[in-house]
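Hello support,

Our group uses your service weekly, and this is the first time we've seen a run hang past the timeout. The protein is AAA-ATPase. I'm not sure whether the cause is the sequence or the server load. Input pasted verbatim:
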Amino acid sequence: MMTMMGGGEKLTQLGSAVAGIMFIWAMFKQYFPPELQGHIEKYTHKLISYVYPFIQITFQEHPGDGFERSTAYAAIERYLSTNSTNRAKRLKANMVRDSRSIILSMDDYEEITDEYKGIKLWWASSKNIPKTQMFSFYGGGEEKRYYKLRFHRKHRETITKNYLNHVLDEGKAIEVRARQRKLYTNNRSEQWVGYRRTMWSHVVFDHPATFDTLAMEPNKKKEIINDLITFSKAKDYYKKIGKAWKRGYLLYGPPGTGKSTMIAAMANLLEYDVYDLELTAVKDNTELRKLLIDTSNKSIIVIEDIDCSLDLTGQRKEEEKDEKKDEEEKDPVKKKMKGDREQSNSKVTLSGLLNFIDGLWSVCGSERIIVFTTNYVEKLDPALIRRGRMDKHIELSYCSFEAFKVLARNYLDLDSHELFAKIRVLLEETKTSPADVAENLMPKSAEGDADTCLENLIKAIEAAKEEARLKAEEEARLKAEEEEKLKAEKEKEKEEKSAEDVEEKKTAVKEVKENGVIP
Ligand SMILES: Nc1ncnc2c1ncn2[C@@H]1O[C@H](COP(=O)(O)OP(=O)(O)OP(=O)(O)O)[C@@H](O)[C@H]1O
Ligand SMILES: [Mg+2]
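Update from on-call engineer: The timeout came from a worker crash unrelated to the input. Re-ran successfully.
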């Protein structure tokens, strides 16, 4: 205070006295007639400005006559909630819509101090109570709340230019951290009507997966976490290089290897909302664009099983298509995907999707992550997955021993066990998905202990290994049979051919004999 005032303790006391008078005035002015109120206020302010070196800024909760709560007031409330819980003696608790927790803020007529770059500031909360007890729409009933900021006039520049932005940014950041995150899914366009926007339906996103619980090679996991965090802090960098603040991830790998789990972990790490985009419910590229424009910042837009939701083979050669058709007819899973695609009538095209990733729409909104998942990366059109479009390709593969250790720690609280060595060998020999491992590590009964779970896992992997061996044997047998059949057919063809040749030769000799000419 001494350093700020420069004028010594007397001035400090004067400041406090004036602040006290103003404070008491704010509380009691309602009891004076309005005409008198105006006069008293005018002259007191004049007098005070001679002796009083402070500047005051007021932030109303409902500026103007609107219903809308000022975003600045809300941000200040959040900002002060971290500050005031330690310093204010009287607090009020608020449960704000969409928030995960109660916000504690200083109660009316409380004052706290803040410090910014060595400058001391005072924040006070207050309210005006109108004389008439009329019905009103304002948030706090009839009262009009406001915050008052007070600081020495020599810091005017710093406070108005930097400090206020700092408070608003911090307040917004606290709000983002405290808000309930949402999982959105797109509705069919027939439901996009009415007063409320219904392009997306949402539920509270409360998935427990985190990168700690995700089973994966530790180095790979670290790399992904770093990549995400770097992205989330790179606002200025993206601006500098002139690129939209977006990043694309392609997650690929067999079923049950943690692709969807990783998306949840990403959302939890960055505290982003998740938009699960079901492409088969989107009629065409125009609808796709509308949906994407309607997403919010700080979100992950997910298209799962991209190969099933979009016919990516549009421009391919016919013969390739035929080949694929045969394959689809044979494989039940692929047949279902094809069914999904056909049933959906979706006319979203590859180029529509590419425009969505890096076309013009990307100028609207920022801080978005786009994630595609697929089980068949080799099926995707190269245009879709080229670098720059999908910035990072992440393979999620079968469960390695390192990944198993994460699961054992999560599910059984085990860091080591005598059965680990055996499991390591089995995992190296087989293709076991983390989902299968996780399934077996869950106790099947209330008494199920860690030993039983590990034994169950061993049994399950051994059974799968045996099944795979039998399948391989069967396939080898069928292949051998096929080859045998082919060989026999070729032999037969050859024999028939040579019989034909002999016959031809005989005819030729006969003709020579009869006609005396060589054909
Ligand atoms: N890497 C992993 N770490 C932890 N748990 C996992 C992992 N992979 C799978 N699981 C477990 O298996 C279940 C299924 O995994 P998930 O849905 O993430 O697989 P997926 O790769 O998305 O499969 P699909 O290709 O079928 O969509 C999850 O609920 C989770 O409990
Ligand atoms: Mg999945």
